Amino acid sequence: MNDMNVKAPIPLPPAVVPVAFEDGLLKVADLDAPIAVEVEVWPAAETGYTVRLHLDNEPVTNERVITDDDKPGNMLTLHLAESLLLHDGTYNLQYRIYSPFADLEDFSPEVALKVDRTPPGGALLGPVLFAERELNSNTLAFIPGYAGIETGDLIRTLCNGVAGPTHTVQADELTLRPIEIVFEKAFLQSLGADYVNIDYTVTDRAGNESIRSLPKTLALVS
Prior knowledge:
Order of helices and strands: EEEEEEEEEEEEEEHEE
Radius of gyration: 25 Å
Number of strands: 16
Shape: rod-shaped
Largest sheet: 6 strands, antiparallel
CATH architecture of the largest domain: Sandwich
Number of helices: 1
């Protein structure tokens, strides 16, 4: 019998949350249902051993009993109830393995899970900024900084209500350079109007969408 006190502890791999981003961020669309967590059966596991999930050092699932069919390297799927992830913030997830034969336990490394339900921009998004108020060629617009700006935010522009160019925020745009979006003259002229009202929304990686920005009017000239 390979109880955990017979051999030196075997390093346990961390739990895996397939729907989470690499940094542990969860999409808001996934928070309305239990979150699947995968745990690899460890090499010394035997029938009758158990495993359970811990969140912030508290047990949050029933014990999953290892059966004859659970071979080392197989993946077990446990679930975090959605009620455990109601509040924004970072949670620490790990699992405990237990030998009832030796009454010994061991814990996996912690992994972070991040919950963010706050839309970017807060109550106000400023309008796009143009160097020129009239369009003579392709023109460059600047998106002002906004509350909660993060790498990976997706900016979608609307031009007289029609989907315009988009932009994904890069890391150096948080501090080193402004966010720039090019509006092509041909696209704007295809709207068939002398004036184009331009606004935008921001959707963060978690799927939170901002309010629409204040509009900006751009005059088209031949």
